[in-house]
Amino acid sequence: MAGNTFHEGLTPLNTAPTQTSDDAHGYYTPGEKIVDPIAPEGPIADRWTTRKFENRLVNPANRRKLDVIIVGTGLAGGAAAATLGEAGYNVKSFCYQDSPRRAHSIAAQGGINAAKNYKEDGDSVFRLFYDTVKGGDYRSRESNVYRLAEVSTNIIDQCVSQGVPFARDYGGLLDNRSFGGVQVSRTFYARGQTGQQLLIGAYQAMERQVAAGTVTQYTRHEMLELVMVEGKARGIIARDLVTGEIETHLADVVVLASGGYGNVFFLSTNAMGSNVTATWRAHRKGAYMANPCYTQIHPTCIPVSGEHQSKLTLMSESLRNDGRIWVPKNKEDCDKDPRDIPEEDRDYYLERIYPSFGNLVPRDIASRQAKNVCDEGRGVGPIVGDFRRGVYLDFADAIARLGEDAVREKYDNLFDMYERITGENPYQVPMRIYPAVHYVMGGLWVDYHLQSNLEGLFVTGEANFSDHGANRLGASALMQGLADGYFVLPNTIRDYLADGPFEKIDESHPEVVAARTAVEERIQKFLSIGGNRSADSFHRELGHIMWEYCGMERTEDGLRKAIDMIRELKAAFWSDLKVLGTADTLNQSLEKAGRVADFIELGELMCIDALNRRESCGGHFRGESQTEDGEALRHDDEFAYVAAWEWGGDEGQPVLHKEDLIYTAIEMKQRSYK
């Protein structure tokens, strides 16, 4: 990073791209270019501070007259509900789980980034900003990312004050560890339970506001439609998942914090109930879906063991701090006990290819290299399908260097989880890991204030696209969720709410009635098809298509084939779906039908987006665009833009709007971790 990397942010360092290739011609309609209308200017280090001061305030008396709906109770949604409730707004909080504490944020294991530089190893706000933009392969907005890095330092103080039990060193100071894509230690952690501990902190802060009467909690409720009145988001239609009742909830503003859409692949590390419905219903109402093809494949997951599985299990990336990744050099050794393979016959391929970063390369790179060695026939573990899907993650060196007790103190719950699932003791035998779908960088388009192109609809956390570009660095998901919920949204939504109090609407308004009627008709449609296949069977088939043709490597021919297959699947879904039960009770078959219907439409758009983007960047790897040694090859002159897709109607084509990415603080370069 030496030399002229640092720029204040006053002069453009690149020009707007001009796309000349068009692999997706005929699949979409070109639209007008868009810009973030409120993007800040000036020195990058001053933009967020200046904007916070410029944003209008809402006095305490008026806050009590304003209603906010928040969909989702993970870190982004829970933190936002707690903070806005504390400020005095009337908040309605919705989640489909039986408790906010079961939001998927609880599953995050490894840690949360913050530019505290407690290790005095050269970290800073600018370095976190630089690492995040570089890790995202220069496909994120620099203003949003710098704000994220700047706010990160406040998050740790907030969480410590809540009692989050971060790991500490012998002297009692907060400890750090490294994660992929960086060369400093900036990741704060609570053993392998960081997400759970942070969520408990946000949960208790929100429950305090529930007790105070500023937050009303609706569990086991699923948002099925966005209510738009006179061009503004004014509420949601939700289904009580226990009674089946369709409910109308109205407010002055709506916040979506409903997470990502990784379950479009069926097999992923996401919770089984994680879905895209909240954001997809908003997309169908006109909200742009940005960069949907940007999905992250996590390199450190327990391998697939057979067709019986319905989800995959993540092993924290933190394990790559001390574990060494390798495969046998010789194919004939792949079925041997790894302890019988001598050191000279092991290929520590990440350390060999990327000597500067070794096992701590970013997730997209580690995932592709794991796929490459398995494709060569050097994978390990049982044969699943037609080849072995696994590489070793070996802790023998760490145990010899640190002692088993020290390794157990850092990772014991992760090792125990691995042993319970696989029946193998990782203290004695190397773990086996393989890449799996984990996180999505795409999501609803938002401006600098986190407001979508639909007035009054704000989107936070993984549900929006704004911070991670084409690849998320490890430990940055928790950082973004809490940054958005605690510090960003409360300072931006007030500028919108300063125009209130707003005119009240009721359930009899024609646009509200139309939204509710659409939900009721959709539910009856699912129940009336009367076919022979379950929603799960369609979901599994969709997942196979997405993984095969829009997974770790995409090609023009494969994506075209996938689009045709998804369209055939969609037709079969609406003619052969079988939903058991009725609408007026608990009915998980009905829940799944709605979610899978939305996943099918999303899957087609993801493939069109991937087909259009004839470059490799981050988690999006096009086989036609790679360097001689197989690394991702970007084409900034054509594709340095955000792809913001507008819904084109049931019978129409999606409309592509481009937001050019202009950098003023970082020069765009081809990534290298060697």
From TrEMBL:
Name the record gives this protein: Fumarate reductase/succinate dehydrogenase flavoprotein subunit
Ranges for domain FAD-dependent oxidoreductase 2 FAD-binding: 67-478
UniProt xrefs under NCBIfam families: PRK07573.1, sdhA_Bsu
Comp. bias regions, Polar residues: 12-21
Entry-linked Gene3D superfamilies: FAD/NAD(P)-binding domain, Fumarate reductase/succinate dehydrogenase flavoprotein-like, C-terminal domain, Succinate dehydrogenase/fumarate reductase flavoprotein, catalytic domain
Domain of life: Bacteria
Keywords: Flavoprotein, Oxidoreductase
InterPro entries: FAD-dep_OxRdtase_2_FAD-bd, FAD/NAD-bd_sf, Fum_R/Succ_DH_flav-like_C_sf, Fum_Rdtase/Succ_DH_flav-like_C, SdhA/FrdA/AprA, Succ_DH/Fum_Rdt_flav_su, Succ_DH/fumarate_Rdtase_cat_sf
Keyword Flavoprotein attached: yes
Residue numbers spanned by region Disordered: 1-33
Ranges for domain Fumarate reductase/succinate dehydrogenase flavoprotein-like C-terminal: 539-673
